[in-house]
Amino acid sequence: MRKGVIVCLGRLRSTSVCGLEKVAVAFATSYPWCEYGGSIPPYSLELLEEAMECKTEVPRLEVETEDSIFEIEFGQIQIEITGRCNMKCEHCRASYQAQLDMPIDQIVKIVRFARQFSPNYKEIILSGGEPLMHRDFASVLIAVRNNGGEFITLTSNGSKLTRKHLDQVEELQFKRFVLSVSLDSLNPERHNTFRGHPGAFRSAVRALQMVAKRNSPTMVASMRSTIQASQIDSMEEMVVFAKNIGCARVSFSAIHPAGRAIERPDLWMTREQKKAFLENLYRLKGAYPDLNITTNDPLKCLLRGVHDIGTENELVFDGCGAAAITFNVNADGTMTPCALLNVPMMNVFPLSISEITDRYRDNPIVRDMLTMNLHGKCGSCNLKYQCGGCRARALVQLGDFLAEDPHCFA
């Protein structure tokens, strides 16, 4: 029944209001460890039970379109707490962001905006830049924890992580804290070159081992691997390595055309390579059921199949939820649909929480994504709510973020 509980998180009922169809909208993969078609890793079972005791009923953000009223419950959100970084990655999506730290009061405001319309068990991603380079990172953690941040993922290159950081995480008693560390090759020289730093490989492995050795039920070592087509056959070797150093999660991603990678099409996978990448990922999920092996690519839905399309007047976002049930805020306050899709929605810094709410509700990008007003074969696809394609790929490769995903192999 535990898998059933997770599926139910994406089901929200609604009724007709004033002649308009009222649609409840939720994020099916509410938990980073949850992916339909796979089992729940052992480290997650107790946390799942705790999460279900959290506040689960919250108001929903109503967005009215021409013929529907959508009720949004936010899934995960991402906050780029700093634009500063000590590495120079070949594919860096944040390479053109301002090199500054986000003020703590602004971080708190963003969290409070999201928490109006999301339960505390929904994930907050703290990213950058290198988030550990925020000049007052300790205060950031305290502020987020005190404002509903119970389930956190910190994305990092690992080079700045110290025992003091991990001590603070334990002291703050997060329900779950995932340290997601970039390790893109088991060849130290290749990883160091890709990340533009001579000690990148050593730092990443050290950081992951530090977390794993804590043997904490609420602290998770997660290896995040951004790979190229030539590495598809090496994915299993990377999974074994991650398992051997104590990781509970491995997240694979192809290189998306964002930031510096926009100018590097040689780093992108082709449609055929993307299919091979995802097929291999699902093979590995079956071969290593004790590890949480994931990907953020929405095209995974083409292989995984339809597991929950909701009932009448229900929508379950299970792929790209950009600007519908998730958002990203850059270090300078610019809100974007996601961290990869550099299309400004607003700047939140000068706004109050109520003003952010009003502008989100009225934003045309939000309405287009809620109605999945997509073009090409994505627009007519019966999986568009479960997949949605990658809007960042559509924008860069086809010039329209609502165009079909150029990597779609359906």
Descriptive account of the structure:
With 410 residues, this protein is an alpha/beta fold. The chain has a single domain, classed as Aldolase class I (TIM Barrel), CATH 3.20.20. The protein is 32% helix and 16% strand. The chain is built from 14 helices and 14 strands. The chain has a 10-stranded mixed beta sheet with strand order 10-9-8-7-6-5-4-12-13-14. Strands 2-3-1-11 form a 4-stranded mixed beta sheet. Helix 3 (104-115) runs parallel beside helix 4, helix 3 crosses helix 11 (353-362) and helix 4 (137-145) runs parallel beside helix 5. The longest helix is centred in the last third of the chain and has 17 residues, at 271-287. The chain is globular.
